Amino acid sequence: xxxxxxxxxxxxxxVLKIEQIATPTPLPNEVxxxxxxxxxxxxDVKTRSGSRTRxxxxxxxxxxxxxxxxxxxxxxxxSNARIGERVWIWNAAWGRxxxxxxxxxxxxxxxxxxxxxxxxxxxxACLGIPALTALHAINVDGGxxxxxxxxxxxxxxxxxxxxxxxxxxxxxxxxxxxxxDAKAALAKSAGADVVINYKTDDVVASVQKETGGAGVDxxxxxxxxxxxxxxxxxxxxxxxxxxxxxxxxxxxVPFVPMILKxxxxxxxxxxxxxxxxxxxAIAQLSAFLDAGKLTHNISARFPLDRIADxxxxxxxxxxxGNVVIDLQ
Length: 328
What we know:
By secondary structure, the protein is α/β, with parallel strands linked by helices. It has helices spanning 12-15, 42-49, 121-124, 127-139, 157-168, 181-190, 203-210, 224-234, 255-260, 275-290, 307-315; strands at residues 2-5, 17-20, 30-40, 66-74, 86-89, 104-108, 112-114, 148-151, 173-178, 194-197, 216-221, 235-243, 264-267, 298-303, 322-326. The strands form 3 sheets. Strands 3, 4, 5, 6, 7, 14 and 15 form a 7-stranded mixed sheet that branches. It has a 6-stranded parallel sheet with strand order 10-9-8-11-12-13, with helices on both faces.
C-alpha cells in the first residue's frame, strides 16, 4: 500500500516521504479500513516537526489520527457484518506507529465508528479530534445550558464545531473571537450571537458590553498561553475556563484575580478522554450527524502526494477550518 511516513523529525518537506509498504492484516478485535480521507491536525504537525520532542517513539511513523473509509477486513471476534461499513476513525496515531495517511489502517474495532450514509468522507476526517474536542469542551462540568459562552477562535476547526454544539446544547448567548471579516462570517453562520475581531476590537470591553457587564459563564480556550489574562477578565465569578490548547508549555497564573472569582480551570486533551466521556461524546455526535444538524468547514484538501503542502498550511495557521488528504 502507499503511505506517507517519516523516520525523523523536521520540516514537512524534509522528512515526509511517500513509500510502498506492506498492507497490514487485522489481529483479533481489530478491523482494517481502506482509507478515503485523512485529517491533518495541529498535533500531527507538532509531532512531525519535533516541537514537543525530537525523540520518535517508533522507527517509522505514518501520521494522522483522523480519517474516514470503509472496513474491508476484520480480525477474530469482530462480526463479518462490519465488512463494507462506512466509518470514521479516532486516535489512529495516538500511542500507535501507523495512522491514516495511508491507503489502509488497522486498529481496534471500537476506534472505527459507523458513518451515516448521507455524511461525506471528507467530514469523517474532521470528527475524531476537532468535533470531539469541541463537544467535550461544551459538555464538561455540567455543560452550557442557559449559560453565556465565549469560544476562542470561532472560525477554526474546533471553534466552528464548538459554536454549533453550544447552540444545540442550550447556551443562552454565544460569543466568539476571530481575526478577519471572512472568519467572522464563518463564525456567524455557525450560530454565534456576537463575533469579535480580536485584531481590531478590545475583546474585554466588547464582552462586557455584550453581556451587560456580567461577563461569561464559560470560556472555551484554544490558546491559554496567549489569552489567560483576557480569560481571567471576561469570566464570571464561579465560571469555567476550559482549555484544550496553548502556545506555551508553562504559563504564569494570575492567582489573586482567579481565586477571588472562584474560577475553575479545566484542562483536557481529546486523546485521553475517559471511556465514559468518549462514549457519551460519540453517541451525541452520531445523533447530530444522523439528524443533519451540523455544518462542516473544510478549508483545504490535497492528494497524498501533496501531504507536505497540507502540513505547511496547518503549521503556518493559514487554514480557516479543517485540512483533508484524499486517498482515493
